[in-house]
């Protein structure tokens, strides 16, 4: 329990300046849900924290057909869970949000924080990957855009330079006939860290064949990862049971799970196969016809199918 | 048999006497105590699981500004204490640490942050000693010894060696012959996991030294007198110099029955002259305070083709960790279960290992035994092709049978609970693929122990009830109801006194299913004593003999002439100036007759064949409660207990590092207790066969609900998908492995144990 | 070093001296001496510390005290008034939705925040809404029953 100072910027510029001044001994916090737990267990010991909460204008979630969905750095996981735009257009992300902790943590935790914390088990991350999220990263030298899968470098490590801030996440507008789902595999229906999480998003052509498929896996590699092999197997195919089963097998092959207190490695790999199949089947079944919120909530946490 | 109608207070729902305090946040728990000048205490955990402490350098910590005192093991008197007769443990190790997490130094500082900084400045040099973590390995020749000098410890009664701390046994009949005569022999090995009690309020206490030098402890405890005795022993102080003030208890379930960490702030308060507060972190609760440790159970039965079980052999290995924080004491009789088995051999070994010491938890050990025995019952049923319900009914204990302890089984509701389950669950029933039903029978007894009560009448006829038991599970409300019923006054006329060890009469711990049953009996008798004294006074005032008087609804009257009488209020007022003085009724008792408690439970599950995960669809329990003192509270106990059992069945799993025994998952993020979202509504059926003893026929309620779920659910899984998982928890991973035929039986060398005993 | 901090707690401005690293929970308990919010884990896992920040339930152990200066904070102490208990509190008393009580302030705050936004919940909604609150004593049956009853009561009196 090391002491730290509390710094509160009221603009992005001020936040960047405080971070630059503090260097490695300072840490940015948003919802502080990861931060306070790590600090209490002695993992993080900054001299000061820069709290983003009071930087105005960053808590938005907006949608338009050109830019798609824009999520500000202070939008919380609960904001996402409650957003009609997200539920209707990005059901896999809504599922990731609804499967996330409990409401008290969702009301604090930010989506940007979930990304920057870069846990392989982050529940919004597979869906964000599957929707091709782009990240706006701002530093004292200006801003840059990075695709989300280039943001993750390792467990807890991102491509952000010291002093940089992730200010916005953008998800392109999905094609017409798109469906998606995220399923979290955990022993309980809430509050657990994912043992495995899988998001699938598929877009269908008018003839029902697969126009695009994106599958992302959580908690089975050092970072959340796309299952490119499985995706490739599906494009321009009809998404029948055999093809979906094959994609499940390829996804399972492509990951590199570890064993820990939650699960063994082989079981995790097998769950990747099962959840890939299930999320794909559901995505196909609901393409262009998003499920109700109640259905998303019931499906999002895999305690039993 | 229902006796509901005759009661005026019992068998009706009453809000808890402390409900208002609790829903407004006003109830004060130990961590809510703030005293002027109070210091914060923090503890240093051992990093090793078996090592000599070569040196502890506290210099830098003591020199840190704001630090007021630092103590280590050698600052305490050189005396061992124990949870029972065997004294195997120092309150803080002096030379040797026995588990990772064992507190080896304590600091008092102006605030928590400073105390924690000081802890991080303490330097410890260890010299490792060979250690052992697996209890089965600990029992083998040549294993490292956890307590090499065990035989010299006070209270040690065995010379079995091999780290065996205790051996309990029970034998009856000719076991070998009965096995030879049996048509079928069924044999199983089961393993249940480490379990944390999971109380929500971390251990906490505040120690204060009064100007007279008297030590006052504000405690989170189920056993104030037991803490007082423990402190007196380890601090070498007379009991009369210590006062324990039990604060509101935020759950204990057995974990707070005895001395825990109170000695640390106590000594620091004595050293500094200031109040000292210790509130454990959740991680400390998991790593310093004894949980239940894994149990391995070997069960073998000899069965006739008609389902009669003629022989039972059970060997149980209880890992007790570094110290005997709680014995396998409750376990032994439960190798039989709620059945009549004429020939048996039961053995329970307690085995030391270098991991956190074992603690108590809701009838310690019985849930482990019930999982084994009730899973085994289904295995038997399938072997001989009998319905599991019929097998249970066929072998169930009946009134007049002799229990394992030798006591004759009095009247009870066992059969009724089974029948109620059959009806509620519609057993047997055809189900969809992947769905299944499972049963379990639970068996327990009501607890005794020193119990006392005093009832004093106030000048307006209301009464004050004083007992020494701390409130657990709404026991204060139940005791008030018993007093009200016995006195014929409304609940609102009973004040339950807040108490501490100075003012309340000596009482046993609040635990082991004894409060309502034993303590309640004391209250009932104290009320009867009160009534007796009121009658005597009434006789005097009314000028008639006592046996001419009746008593009802707070009024004493002349039976031949009902209008002539005196109300309690009048008598109370009169007593104040009477010859005998203000009326106080008292009662005390220590042991109570054997009163069994039975419950039948059933689960309906759905098994996901691809993930192995179990979804609990329905859970029904029927329990013989005797009489429901406060049905709402009784059902609350049943619900809470069953849900703890469901956690044990499905998700809770305290894991230990195989090399150094350290707790691997010391948080609620990794030790997974059930949440509302995971549960169906629990269905409760109360069976009422009044106990021959106990207050108004009430039986203990709190413990049996937690025994059944692991077996009921495992049996339902078998019914659903045809695989039997013999290891808890029933995780998706284990069930899937079983479905894939990859599930290994648990190795257990029963021959070695029989040999050691010279049985074969 | 402790810094001055003004918090609006239960409708009242409180000027406190608070360490910069304190959580809102520590601040409420140690400095404001509002000990109704409980510390069951200090890791966000149990929900016993739940308070409302601008009407939304949050685990106060995960909030930096100094970041809460512009929020309306409601704690368990802020629910009852001189006229008596809030509907949720009353329902917990009447339906026996409590035992040891340590989880109860958190559960009541979660339920209060939830019902304000969802006056007509199903039982499944309620179980989802209290998914972040651990209770070891009650098995949740009577807790859920109490929250459903409070919802009905609030609809009636609305
Ligand atoms: C009880 C509990 C339950 C949880 N359950 C889940 C769960 O179910 N699923 C899940 O995925 N996670 C879970 N988490 C983890 C955590 O809540 C999430 O990772 C959350 O999204 C983090 O967001 P935050 O705003 O709280 O981040 P903070 O704690 O404030 O920050 C986390 C990290 O990200 C950095 N950071 C934050 N925002 C930015 C930014 N805009 N730019 C650059 N860096 C930034 C911080 O410097 C820090 O290193 C849980 C945590 C707790 C305590
Ligand atoms: S104390 Fe905050 S969630 Fe447990
Ligand atoms: S009432 Fe004890 S934890 Fe909920």
Account of the 3D structure:
- The complex is a heterotrimer of chains A (305), B (760) and C (158).
- Chain A is built from 13 helices and 15 strands.
- Chain A has helices spanning 12-22, 33-40, 77-82, 84-89, 91-98, 103-106, 111-117, 125-130, 148-151, 228-234, 241-254, 265-285, 293-300, and strands at residues 5-7, 26-29, 48-51, 61-64, 68-72, 134-139, 142-147, 152-154, 157-158, 165-171, 178-185, 196-204, 210-218, 225-226, 301-302.
- In chain A, the strands form 4 sheets. A 5-stranded antiparallel β-sheet of chain A has the order 4-5-10-6-7.
- The mean pLDDT of chain A is 96.
- Chain B is α+β, with helices and mostly antiparallel strands and 760 residues long.
- In chain B, 26% of the residues lie in helices and 24% in strands.
- Chain B is built from 18 helices and 26 strands.
- With 158 residues, chain C is α+β, with helices and mostly antiparallel strands.
- Chain C is built from 5 helices and 5 strands, in the order ββαβββαααα.
- Chains in contact: A-B, A-C, B-C.
- Chains B and C meet through helix 1 and helix 15 of B and helix 2, helix 3, helix 4 and helix 5 of C.
- Flavin-adenine dinucleotide sits between chains A (27-35, 37, 73, 100-101, 105, 108-110, 112-114, 116-117, 122-123, 160, 165-166) and C (44-45, 62).
List the topology elements:
The complex is a heterotrimer of chains A (305), B (760) and C (158).
Chain A: E1 5-7, H1 12-22, E2 26-29, H2 33-40, E3 48-51, E4 61-64, E5 68-72, H3 77-82, H4 84-89, H5 91-98, H6 103-106, H7 111-117, H8 125-130, E6 134-139, E7 142-147, H9 148-151, E8 152-154, E9 157-158, E10 165-171, E11 178-185, E12 196-204, E13 210-218, E14 225-226, H10 228-234, H11 241-254, H12 265-285, H13 293-300, E15 301-302
Parallel strand pairs in A: 1-3, 2-3, 11-15
Antiparallel strand pairs in A: 4-5, 5-10, 6-7, 6-10, 8-9, 11-12, 12-13, 13-14
Helix pairs in contact in A: 5-13, 10-11, 11-12
Chain B: H1 19-24, E1 39-45, E2 51-57, H2 59-63, E3 67-72, E4 96-97, E5 103-109, H3 112-121, E6 123-128, H4 135-138, E7 164-172, H5 175-181, E8 184-192, E9 204-209, E10 215-219, H6 224-235, E11 242-246, H7 263-272, E12 276-279, H8 282-288, E13 295-303, E14 309-321, E15 343-352, H9 366-384, H10 388-395, H11 414-425, E16 435-445, E17 451-457, E18 463-467, H12 475-487, E19 494-496, H13 515-542, E20 549-552, E21 555-558, E22 561-567, H14 568-577, E23 584-589, E24 596-607, E25 614-624, H15 631-650, E26 682-687, H16 709-721, H17 732-739, H18 750-757
Parallel strand pairs in B: 1-12, 10-11, 14-15, 18-19, 25-26
Antiparallel strand pairs in B: 1-5, 2-4, 2-6, 3-5, 7-15, 8-13, 9-10, 9-12, 13-14, 16-24, 17-18, 17-23, 20-21, 21-22, 24-25
Helix pairs in contact in B: 9-16, 12-13, 15-16
Chain C: E1 3-9, E2 12-18, H1 24-31, E3 50-53, E4 56-59, E5 72-74, H2 87-94, H3 104-117, H4 123-129, H5 141-157
Parallel strand pairs in C: 1-5
Antiparallel strand pairs in C: 1-2, 3-4, 3-5
Helix pairs in contact in C: 2-5
The structure holds flavin-adenine dinucleotide (FAD) and FE2/S2 (inorganic) cluster (FES) (2 copies).
Flavin-adenine dinucleotide (FAD) sits between chains A (27-35, 37, 73, 100-101, 105, 108-110, 112-114, 116-117, 122-123, 160, 165-166) and C (44-45, 62).
